[in-house]
Here is the input.
Amino acid sequence: MSAKIILVGAGGHAKVVLDALQAAGLVVGGVVDPSLAGSSDYWRGVPVLGDDRDLLKLKPGDVELVNGIGSMPGQSLRREIFRKLTSAGFNFLSVIHPSVITGSGVRLMASAQLMAGAIVQADSLVGTNTIVNTSAHIDHDCKIGSDVHIAPGVAISGGVQIGDGAHIGTGASIIQGISLGRGVVVGAGAVVVRNVPDNARVMGPAPRVTPGQGME
Ligand code: JB2
Here is the structure.
């Protein structure tokens, strides 16, 4: 009998991950989230098993986990939960929405997640526990590190390297051959045209808001 799939977390990112799993024809047997423990029997049709303490009562070999926690700059929960549960012997599945396009030679590490519309071209690598979010595009020969979040609509050209723990904000663009260091944060809509050192920030264009004229 195949191992039962359990989703860790039941927030916004978990909804997207659950949809991807179900679109791929997989059955999610349970979800653990402190916000649901003791208050709900089901979440989006998935049985609520409780919180992580209830998960830790299970035998790691009987279940496959999926990381439903997202990540934003400064948030380490997704990484912490992945490390805690893998240290406890649990295995995390990678998630690939059926609409994803991957080229030849693409390598996905454990718990890498490719959401709907993502494209990863030839010989690129997506690191452990990394999210390539909705409609993000990664071209050939890129190396995306672990615990990275490539936010929706990001465009990354060929030969780009992105260090562990980086966050590439919604709709940002990175030209070919650029290296971004560990922990780099690229703001929404930014265009990166030169290398970025560890932990540096590249901010996008400052939006300019002008007061509305009301209904014409
Ligand atoms: O220790 C925990 C824990 N701490 C919080 N264990 C488990 N199993 N779950 C935990 N949670 C749960 O994570 C919270 O109760 C909550 O239900 C969920 C976080 O949901 P939230 O909607 O706040 O964020 P998210 O992580 O799903 O999504 C973030 O990242 C995505 C990439 C948001 O910023 C999204 O907008 C973004 N798209």
Summary: The helical segments are 12-23, 52-55, 77-87. The CA atoms of residues 143 and 161 lie 5 Å apart. The chain has two domains: 4-93, 95-216.
